[in-house]
């Protein structure tokens, strides 16, 4: 295989070439490293490079799995024994993991070679990836814009064709937001579908989960087949899928009942190009034979207020554990102002306030469950304004009052599906006149990734996106 063809394949396709001995894992690794050298100086997506780790993996012999020999990036929040994991934080810039997380091990078991870590904002707190430690990760479609967050490095690397699939995680939209901003496919699975141990039973009160972003729908489905399922420490399990997820891609979705809106869940008007794109996709779905109607769920509580309390409490615990390990109080030389402020605010929040936020999240979940009794899918924009410009969110500012209004305008609809635990995906179906991607978000009932994969497969065939390349591309 001429290496110029590398970018024509998704991860399943590259693994098939390895199985047929048309290319070796070391050759694929070499190509991924060469592509990183070519484009990463511009986008800053691969912030921890441990090529020697991947080479040792190959030398020892990779497991026989669905992605044997495929290069892979782990998000710089998850632990991989013997490698640096910074979580985007200055205080952790030299931290080396002494064990491997369950999800990372399941990735290893698929046969991938993990050659580095993709960038994240500090502790994954922001929908843009601009940590003080590593600097901004730029959007391959326009370097003045953010690639999204918190899995911004993963999405930028996949969009720029460094590799076809990469680890991502989502606590309030962090798979779907960068997938939308960077023009790739990203599905947030059902709560507890994929493991979070051994150090956590759940993340952010059950809001957070891990999976991947990818160029193709089938890469996401095949990966989920390989990594899903409980572990001994799982506090609960996701509903059992009807069949392997990979068998859903390409399967006739039937006539789906699809509700849609081109407005923010707060009722606010959104960017007009995004609103037009939503209506265009709704028309496309109707043309495919689905029943499409305009309506939206009514939420019983404010998702932003819930997130502030739940995430703040979890951030405060993270800061406390670091302080206990280091043996001193953290300052703004160690952690960003936003992180410290979130932790400080949480200390002024009572246990009763935290439980009240959990109850509000349940009320949101209940309202969404009721809404989905009369539809199979809900379509809305992943983001309600185009990808943020670099520097628009400043986590080191002494005045953080600019952040909440931007978040409400930018990504008002993603977090509610973390609260409900429902699966949701961002599909790269539109671009604005400036050439920036506009992802469309589809959500389904709890446990029903199958319907999402069937719909995504149909859309991928009807309105393909893989051949669209950003200006910064390997």
UniProtKB/TrEMBL annotation:
Keyword Magnesium included in the entry's annotation: no
Family: Belongs to the amidase family.
PROSITE patterns linked to this entry: AMIDASES
Protein name (Swiss-Prot/TrEMBL): Indoleacetamide hydrolase
Reported function: Hydrolyzes indole-3-acetamide (IAM) into indole-3-acetic acid (IAA).
Domain Amidase per the UniProt entry, residue ranges: 27-452
GO molecular function, one term: hydrolase activity
UniProt key word Hydrolase: yes
InterPro entries referenced in this protein's UniProt entry, alphabetically: Amidase, Amidase_CS, Amidase_dom, AS_sf
Record keywords, A-Z: Hydrolase
């Amino acid at each position: 295989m001429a290496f110029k063809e590398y970018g024509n394949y998704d991860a399943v396709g590259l693994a098939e070439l390895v199985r047929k001995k048309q290319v070796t894992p070391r050759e694929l690794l070499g190509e991924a490293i060469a592509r990183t050298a070519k484009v990463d100086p511009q986008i800053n997506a691969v912030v921890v490079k441990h090529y020697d780790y991947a080479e040792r993996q190959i030398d020892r012999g990779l497991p026989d799995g669905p992605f044997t020999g495929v290069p892979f990036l782990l998000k710089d929040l998850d632990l991989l024994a013997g490698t640096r994991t910074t979580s985007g934080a200055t205080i952790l810039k030299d931290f080396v993991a002494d064990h491997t997380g369950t999800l990372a091990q399941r990735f290893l078991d698929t046969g991938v070679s993990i050659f580095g870590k993709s960038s994240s904002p500090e502790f994954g707190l922001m929908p843009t990836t601009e940590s003080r430690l590593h600097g901004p990760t730029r959007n391959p479609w326009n370097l003045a814009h953010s690639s999204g967050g918190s899995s911004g490095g993963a999405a930028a690397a996949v969009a720029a064709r460094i590799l076809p699939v990469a680890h991502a995680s989502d606590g309030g939209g962090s798979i779907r937001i960068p997938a939308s901003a960077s023009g790739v496919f990203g599905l947030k699975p059902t709560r507890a579908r994929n493991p979070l141990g051994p150090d956590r039973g759940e993340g952010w009160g059950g809001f957070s989960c891990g999976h991947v972003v990818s160029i193709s729908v089938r890469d996401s489905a095949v990966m989920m087949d390989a990594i899903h399922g409980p572990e001994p420490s799982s506090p609960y399990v996701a509903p059992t899928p009807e069949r392997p997820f990979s068998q859903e891609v390409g399967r006739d979705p039937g006539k789906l009942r699809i509700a849609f809106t081109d407005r923010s869940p707060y009722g606010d008007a959104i960017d007009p190009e995004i609103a037009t794109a939503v209506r265009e996709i709704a028309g496309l779905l109707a043309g495919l034979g689905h029943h499409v109607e305009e309506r939206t769920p009514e939420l019983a509580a404010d998702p932003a207020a819930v997130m502030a309390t739940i995430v703040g409490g979890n951030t405060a615990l993270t800061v406390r554990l670091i302080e206990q390990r280091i043996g001193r109080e953290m300052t703004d030389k160690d952690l960003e102002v936003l992180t410290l402020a979130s932790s400080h605010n949480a200390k002024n929040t009572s246990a009763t306030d935290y439980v009240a936020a959990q109850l509000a999240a349940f009320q949101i979940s209940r309202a969404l469950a009721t809404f989905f009794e009369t539809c199979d899918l809900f379509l809305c924009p992943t983001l309600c304004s185009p990808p943020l410009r670099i520097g628009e969110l400043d986590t080191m500012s002494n005045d953080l009052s600019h952040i909440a209004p931007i978040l409400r305008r930018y990504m008002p609809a993603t977090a509610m599906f973390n609260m409900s635990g429902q699966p949701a995906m961002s599909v790269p179906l539109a671009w604005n006149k400036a050439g920036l991607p506009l992802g469309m978000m589809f959500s389904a009932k709890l446990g029903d990734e199958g319907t999402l994969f069937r719909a995504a497969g149909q859309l991928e065939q009807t309105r393909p996106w893989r051949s669209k390349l950003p200006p910064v591309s390997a």
